[in-house]
Design a protein that fits this description.
By secondary structure, the protein is mainly beta. The protein has one helix and 15 strands. Strands 2, 9, 10, 12 and 13 form a five-stranded mixed beta sheet that branches. The protein is globular. The chain starts with a strand and ends with a strand.
Length: 165
């Protein structure tokens, strides 16, 4: 028997305990290039420990469909991890609170086109789950030695659906 989670729209306030929503805001930090470019500066708390460095990678993931079966989550204790979609398609974001080093009360969000996320260091989250092909993302995360991935498999999987499914 699966538990059901209903995905809600991603907002900065609903996501704040887990990380940062990366998106264009109302007012740019500064206008550059003779007025032809708005810069939105420092939108995520990039956080690395234990001599790691920031790396920029490309991830290409297979698209999923809703309802989606959530069997496990992971976290990265040595660094934050940002996902920046390279298309204007939404993707599924799954996070969970931590209770004594175990994920509890998973939540699911669906991004709007143009939104990315940055998971804070140590936050339990689902794997990359684009809802459309090609599922291409720029990723900023910690590169370096050390065990930076912990997985937790649920005894009973969760079913992630949109309201009305």
């Amino acid at each position: 028997m699966n538990h059901t989670i209903f995905a809600e729209p991603l907002t900065a306030s609903a996501f704040s305990q887990f990380g940062d929503v990366i998106e264009v805001q109302k007012n740019p930090t500064v206008v550059i290039n003779q007025g032809n470019c708005n810069r939105y500066t420092d939108l995520a708390d990039v956080d690395f420990i234990d001599h790691g460095r920031a790396g920029i990678s490309l991830f290409k993931a297979v698209a999923c469909t809703l309802p989606y079966t959530l069997e496990y989550v992971e976290r990265h204790p040595l660094g934050s991890q940002a996902f920046l979609p390279m298309t204007q398609h939404p993707f599924l974001v799954i996070v969970a609170e931590d209770d004594h080093n175990q994920p509890v009360r998973p939540k699911a969000f669906v991004t709007r086109p143009g939104q990315g996320v940055n998971y804070h260091r140590g936050v339990w989250h689902g794997v990359l789950t684009p809802l459309h092909e090609p599922g291409l993302f720029g990723v900023v995360d910690r590169i370096g030695n050390g065990d930076n991935v912990q997985e937790f498999w649920f005894d009973t999987p969760y079913q992630v659906s949109q309201p009305g499914q």
